[in-house]
Amino acid sequence: MNPSTHTAKKSSLILLLMTMTLLGVFPLDVVLPSFPALSDYFQTSASDIALSVSLFAIGLALSVVLVGPLSDLWGRRTLLLTGIAISLVGATGCLLSSEYSGFLVFRVIQAVGCGSFVLSQALIQDLFVGKEQERIRIWMTTAAGVFISISPLLGTWLQMHLGWEGSFYVFIALAAIVWIKAGVLLKESPRSRNAAPGRFFSAYWRLCSDLRFMGYWLISGLAFACHFSFIVMSPIIFMERLALSPYEFAWTLLLYGVAYVFGGIVASALHRRLPANSQIVIGLGLIALSGLVMLWLANQFGLTAAAVLIPMLICTAGTTIARPIANSKAMTLYPQDAGTSSSVGGVMIFLCGGVISVVINLASADLTTALALCFLFLSAAGLGLNALIMQRNLALNAS
């Protein structure tokens, strides 16, 4: 393959990964401005609609348990195409649902299909090498920030013109495009030498018994949970409690998305200058700071948009600094089992996000205090894990 053709294919692959990232914001972010409409349509509370998003994340995590190892067994391409097809069935079922219970069932089906998107981590491991892997993961985190920043505006526009169904229409269209592009661009990945059916669970055991591997993914999951909990609670805080319109809510979250992008830019700069441990400490330190700022602002000014948004800008910067490097450090430990590695990571990330957001939703009387305490607890846990990983690395280097 000549250099120009190789470069063009690499660009196409990066574009495919970015489109998968864009597709991932629709079930969780673009739908946010439609919370009141969904609540009215299904005659249920906004808290119940928020719970459906948390259950989506938990369903996604359970799906991911199988996706990674099966991709090592059958190949990334096959699993990705199958998962996208299942997500299309789920999204279509959501559109056709007339009862909230049916909507929840099809949301879980959609989540099961979306579990295949976790293969983006394994695809990066398969298709790129060395520093390029870390650079592309930072690009994807930054791209996610851009998509998150525009998703409330897009969701508001879709709600105004197409109703709550709009986000599902666009999801179906994008998923069909990704399905076609993945079928054309991706070659079937080679089977892992550890991918025999009898070794399905032994691969999980080997990875999950590694303190460093689990620690890095748990750090990423705890950081993601801070971001995800705010995303799930934001329609309740801004539209139900503060009575912002969907349009005002969208512009409020635009600032949050800008901070996500800024965090990605800072992460790129830190990646070139600081070791991984320092990057993780800085990211988690910012999350802890955001919790303290949120508690102080809530005590001084009560529930206001600024009292919530200012600490969240700090928090999301910390999240985008800590997560990409933690992901990369985890994925490089077992490159021969990239599918299983990404699967474990996806489970940790979405299970943390789903479970913690459910817990915060139960504290509906004072969501800001619950969020702030969550940030403090999770960042402290992450810093403790990082210290344990460093001790383990020193012990391995000394032996």
TrEMBL record:
Any one GO molecular function term: transmembrane transporter activity
Domain Major facilitator superfamily (MFS) profile: 13-399
Keyword Membrane (UniProt): yes
Membrane-protein topology: Multi-pass membrane protein
Pfam families: MFS_1
Ranges annotated as spanning the membrane: 12-37, 49-67, 79-98, 104-124, 136-154, 166-186, 216-237, 249-268, 280-297, 303-322, 343-364, 370-389
Gene Ontology cellular component terms for the protein in this record: plasma membrane
Keyword entries, A-Z: Cell membrane, Membrane, Transmembrane, Transmembrane helix
Cell location: Cell membrane
Protein name as it appears in the record: Multidrug transporter CflA
Lineage: Bacteria, Pseudomonadati, Pseudomonadota, Gammaproteobacteria, Pseudomonadales
